[in-house]
Predict the 3D structure of the following.
Amino acid sequence: MAGDTPDIDLVSQAFMRDPYPTLARLRDAGPVVRVKVPFLGETWIATTHEAVTTVLKDDSTFVRSPKNAGRKQFAGMRWWMPRTLRVLGENMLGYDDPDHRRLRKLVDQAFNRQSVEGLRGRIGRLCDDLLDRLAGAGPVDLMEGLARPLPLTVICELLGLPEEDRPQFRRWVQALMSATALWGAVRFLPGLFRLVGYFKRHFALCRREPRPGLMTALVQAEQDGDQLSENELLAMAFLLLVAGHETTVHLIGGGVLALLEAPEQKARLLADWSLAPSAVEELLRFVSPVQIAKPRYVGRDLELHGRPLRRGDVLVPMLAAANADPGRFERPEGMDITRAPNPHVAFGTGKHFCLGAQLARVEAQVVIERLFTRFPDLSLSVPGSALEYTGRLGIRALTALPVRLT
């Protein structure tokens, strides 16, 4: 990446291990900086908390749909994608109102605070079952044994997928999430087509034999006149699958690592579990598992923080840079589980605020409390410098987290 700043690498292992110096360089270049990104070309990035929240909240000026900014083609390389990939990518995250409002209202109820809090006990039991399987073992990979399977199981239950289908479903999803580079994504295409075929069959089954879960709710909404097309059904199911669990996977993995690397914060939490909610908020800010928000398109010519933007320009809100902004957070490079207020933007803000935010919060609270209550002396089984992250732009994701439980 180059432009207003010297070349920076947002997918390097050095950046993933400690993003704060690079994020500071981005902010030092200005609240809004011009960069050149491979394949995408010239793009703007919002780097401060003020600039990022301005972009995220002003959805009439900074739009998600390129056609609302005078662009006729999809951004970036979307034109070469197989039709199936394009369909899955055309979910409500890429829409502006009124389409966004119409689609979001179908699933908001399932993910609101009251509905998710009702799952807390079930999430705890699922967590205990996974910890039972790990107990007594030698060094274990906490990503493989806990951080990945728990959120995926929870979203399977929310969607209403039959128990017998879940092992194969998990294999498809885990293969998809492990595809970091272009070639990895191409290799996964056959599995993605099978996943789409499964969704289609399951929607047909839900029409014939309604069962509890969001899949049936989406089909019934279609039948009640909301006019969800087959493509919208597929895109919504895929979005719920990804948004409903991937962020939580990396919040759990990165959050556990952050606590292990800050033993005084971990000790404070273990001494007072009433701090769990604020601890998770701070982990969301400190780890910032989602580093960037979806690109916006500038809907009209304007000046933003002294930079002239033109209609049709692409602007990317850098969530991680906003969460590390010393103009908004005292000592942002340090973790403080009692930080209050904590206006992080890990889930974004505005109308596109993350649908699965409350679910991620509850899952992370439950997992961290159950894990460290049961294994208070949990420790890394390898040096921290040996840990590796995936090379995916915009996601801070550990590939593995080897630990000793006792």
Remarks:
- The longest helix spans residues 182-208.
- DSSP finds 18 helices and eleven strands in the chain.
- The first strand starts at residue 2 and ends at 3.
